[in-house]
Specification:
This protein has about 240 residues and is of the alpha/beta class. The protein has three domains: about 70 residues, Histidine-containing Protein, Chain: A (2-Layer Sandwich); about 90 residues, Histidine-containing Protein, Chain: A; about 70 residues, Histidine-containing Protein, Chain: A, CATH 3.30.1340.30. Strands 4, 5, 6, 7, 8 and 9 form a six-stranded mixed sheet that branches. A hairpin with a 2-residue loop joins strand 6 and strand 7. Helix 4 packs across helix 5.
């Protein structure tokens, strides 16, 4: 018979071995029931969140994960402020020029910008969690919207429920295309200095940049890409 205490202990041991999760600085609660591990708490960044989930899911006899982890915001913000920032980012983004933008405000849908298009971005924010719905024209647009939401300093999580219409088959090349698009928009990064690769949803970054902050920003952007499960950062600082 599987004892919950043993599984929980194994999860904690795995999280302790990953310095980016940093359990000494952040509190994570672990529970286990009927094969499902639930992670609850706050972590320091998107990388820590994704790594914690991957580590827990990789252990036997875990058959499922419930994600209740939130990212520590770099700047505390009210939900309405976060929502406004996300909507403004969408309206300022040339890739979304033809999109309708809507927001859920006090349980009512408000149209922030109306366009004659079947594509729409819908934004809801609850306790710092940005929930994205609507319809986008490509996987790159879906992923770009998610990263723009993550870039808002108050965001604690991003739930990307956007549909791609017409549907597209996802693969590693789509991840690279989206990350290239994101890096070109990040003011901290010179995308021309970075070479990208992806295999089985694990991104590899190579190249040379002039600052540690540029190296860190490129890795952070990669972790923010929807679907990315790992990042190998081989960028050098010269």
């Amino acid at each position: 018979m599987i004892r919950a205490e043993e599984v929980i202990g194994s999860v904690f041991a795995a999280l302790e071995r990953e310095p980016r999760v940093d359990l000494h600085s952040h509190f994570v609660e672990v529970s286990f029931l009927d094969g499902v591990v639930t992670l609850t708490g706050e972590v320091g960044g998107v990388a820590a969140k994704k790594l914690a989930l991957e580590l827990a899911a990789s252990l036997s006899p875990v058959t499922g994960i419930v994600d209740r982890l939130r990212v520590e915001p770099s700047e505390p913000m009210e939900d309405g402020t976060i929502r406004d920032h996300v909507c403004n980012a969408f309206m300022s983004e040339p890739a979304f020029e033809g999109y309708t933008v809507r927001a859920l405000v006090k349980q009512e849908i408000e149209t922030v910008r109306a366009q004659d298009s079947r594509h729409m971005l819908e934004v809801e924010v609850t306790e710092g969690v940005v929930i994205l719905n609507g319809s986008v024209q490509s996987l790159s647009h879906q992923r770009l919207a998610g990263v723009l939401a993550w870039w808002v300093p108050g965001s604690r999580d991003v739930v990307n429920g956007m549909e791609v219409s017409p549907p597209m088959e996802d693969n590693d090349f789509e991840v690279v295309d989206a990350l290239q698009l994101v890096l070109e928009k990040d003011p901290l990064v010179n995308a021309a200095q970075i070479r990208l690769g992806c295999r089985d949803l694990v991104v590899q970054l190579e190249g040379a940049v002039s600052t540690e902050s540029a190296k860190a920003a490129a890795e952070s952007d990669a972790w923010c890409i929807f679907g990315v499960n790992g990042v190998i950062n081989k960028i050098t600082v010269v």
